[in-house]
Amino acid sequence: MDNQVFKKTIGLTEKEFSYCPGCTHGVIHRLVAESLEELGVIGKAVGVASVGCSVINYEFFDCDMQQAAHGRAPAVATGIKRVNPDNIVFTYQGDGDLAAIGTAEAIHAAHRSENITVIFVNNAIFGMTGGQMAPTTLKGQKTTTSQAGRDPHLAGMPIRMSEILGQVPGAHYVERVSVHDPKHIIKAKRAIKKAFKNQVDGKGFSLVEIISTCPVNWKMTPVDSINWLKSNMIEYYPLGVIKDGDSND
Amino acid sequence: MAKVLMKGNEAMALAAIKGGVDAFFGYPITPQNEIPEYLSRELPKLGKVFVQAESEVAAINMVYGAGGAGARVLTSSSSPGIALKQEGITYMVGSQIPGVIINVMRGGPGLGGIQPSQADYNQVTRGGGNGDYNTIVLAPEDVQEAVDLVKESFDLADYYRNPVMIAADGLIGQMMAPVDLDRPVPKIDLPEKDWATIGTENRKPGKDGKVECNTIVSLSLVDTVLEDMNIELQKKFNHMKENQQRYELIKMEDAELVIVAYGTSSRICRSAINDLREEGIKVGMIRPITLWPFPEKAFNEIPKTAKGLMTVEMSMGQMIDDVKIANNGRLPVGFYGRCGGVIPEPEEIVKACKEFLGGLNG
Amino acid sequence: MAKGRIVVSTDRCKGCSLCVNACPQGVIELDKKVNVKGYTPAFAKHPEKCTGCTFCALVCPDVVIEVYREKGGKANG
Predict the structure, then answer these.
(1) Residues of A numbered 193-222 whose beta carbons fall under 8 angstroms of chain B's beta carbons: which are they?
(2) B94 interfacial to chain A (CB closer than 8 Å)
(3) Residue B147 lies in a domain
(4) Is B175 touching A (CB cutoff 8 A)?
(5) Which pLDDT belongs to residue C75?
(6) What CA–CA distance (Å, rounded) separates C7 from A61?
(7) What are the CB-based long-range contacts (under 8 Å, 24+) for A193-197?
(8) Sign of the dihedral through C-alpha A13, B70, B238, B132
(9) CATH no. for residue C60?
């Protein structure tokens, strides 16, 4: 007789993910859903879907969901949380959504210390629209709008949103994690669960940036993408806690 | 109830409170700043929500979120800020989220000016956002009517699950006037908001004993599904067209010339009509109170004595298109307008009416 | 080492190979036959080597793997 040691969380619906094979969105969805289940807050949860590959994630999370316009999710989440403070409100955003069009909404939600949880998926590219350069695209990285590689003279250096948001006084907790191997996935889960626990405890704005892959638009296999992430992205986007209002410095 | 002397913007803000507003999200822009200022002070006293957002864009998205969560929500702005809200408004319509938007109109295009204008007619009735959509647009003539319409707008928005726009102009927003804040307005019997995103544990199970998740979306990647969504929305808009046309008829019975004007323009035209009638020139007026749905029914009440229609707007001519459509080629249509924040005097309108009538008679 | 066992929802698997790559024991391979979606799904080619460490399930982006471990056993990852 054996024990089941890994089971799919009830925080996810039965619907099959529409993501590309090997896309780490699926892993991150699972971590979010598990966190909600383990904290016992699926029934209170209201998620805000953004615009990107995860635009239809309202079909995958088994809780109330509202879709937001591109970049606006933190503002939509603010509206929901302010009128119903007992709900556990989260946004799930890609790097185009949060680091391009949505920088103002992200910064100001942190600035007001809205008691919400922001899940920020950084895969250094615009996935859904077919692989254009994102603000997070690495120097020299080839995309459909930086076909010779990102040129900092034309497009600037990639933006580190977690460091920016960590500077905002209202941000309570900001951590950057990765999901490229089991050890990092376990750490990512810890960070995501903490970001939700902070909301339950009323601590204010919590954000987890998750370094992720985009095999199709990076033009690599899923396994090669994992390795490319490890070798290239973590050096520029260092993992770890950027800000934690719980620690006494 | 005794009348209180109030500034238009503040009266509209208090009217929103009387209309049951739960939350206000807005951003400063002249000439409507008294609305957020008043609500920033009064809403917290009532345990309600006030947020000064980082932009008009953020504000309308907060409205969309809070409205989706079942609250009665308000935002206010002025013309350039309303332009910024267009995307958010279409999301509200597409997702069937109620809310009230007050537009205290100023001159444009672009940054324009800060003085009163009616140059947003196209923006508010045609919608500057994408897709097939409409919102009810209510145009008060004075501060009292603004109060009444703001109070009523929350029920209307909830009834239709659609945004309602109040198109006031800067003059109405800034003027002081005596108002009765408790004048009764029509109330609608409203169903529970069982579609709101309040969390599955806060909702009763369905017939099968399960609680379904509520999702608020305006997206469909399947063409026939999106078409069906639009057909459903059109049913609402058709209901509005049938049932929500509002207008006032002034001195129409024997009119040779019928002015069509709304808001501050219509108030000035009232004076012009009196002046013209003193000279024996019989002029009447159709005053649209809803800009959308445009009160086409009013045009069936134009007397046989009428020789022409005169549209008067504080713009270069936007409502005139709807006047021509409603008129349907029956009568000649003239136009008089000032813009940029210039408010016409009654004498100018008298002169324009005489010239137009002279042209028709001669 | 403990005895483990995986159950793969074959028809939901997209054959991405992340589990193949993650398994420290080399238990998993991709089948040569395609599933209903046209992908070559993962399966336990060497089930006797499985320790139930759950690495495969942790990395699976489609949550198609269930993992079991014999009672009282601890997996070595």
Answers:
(1) none
(2) no
(3) yes
(4) no
(5) 64
(6) 23
(7) A193/A31, A193/A34, A193/A35, A193/A38, A193/A39, A195/A35, A195/A117, A195/A118, A195/A119, A196/A35, A196/A36, A196/A39, A196/A41, A196/A88, A196/A90, A196/A117, A197/A39
(8) negative
(9) 3.30.70.20
Query: Across chain A, how many H-helices and E-strands are there?
Result: 10, 8
ipTM of predicted assembly, 2 dp:
0.95
Q: What does the angle CA A129 – CA A131 – CA A132 come to, to the nearest 5 degrees? A: 85
Inter-chain residue contact B57 with A72, CB threshold 8 Å:
yes
CA of C35 to nearest chain A CA: how many angstroms apart?
14
Q: Which residues in chain A are contacts of C70 at CB distance < 8 A?
A: 1-3
Residue C63 is nearest to which of A8, A182, A226, comparing CB atoms? A8
Within a domain: B211: no
> Tens digit of pLDDT for each residue in B73-121?
999 999 999 999 999 999 999 999 999 999 999 999 999 999 999 999 9
Three-state DSSP at B68 gives helix
According to DSSP, the residues that pair with A117 across neighbouring strands are: A90, A206
Q: Rounded CA gap, A82 and B73, in Å?
A: 12
Q: Which pLDDT tens digit goes with each residue over A80-97?
A: 999 999 999 999 999 999
Q: Global pTM?
A: 0.95
Report residues of chain B scoring pLDDT below 50: none
Domains and their CATH numbers in chain A = 25-244 (3.40.50.970)
CB contact under 8 A, C67 and A223: no
Please check whether residue A46 touches B, CB under 8 A: yes
**Cβ-based neighbour number of residue A230 at 10 Å:** 15
- d(CA A168, CA B55) in angstroms, rounded, equals 18
Q: For chain A, say whether B255 makes contact (Cβ under 8 Å).
A: no
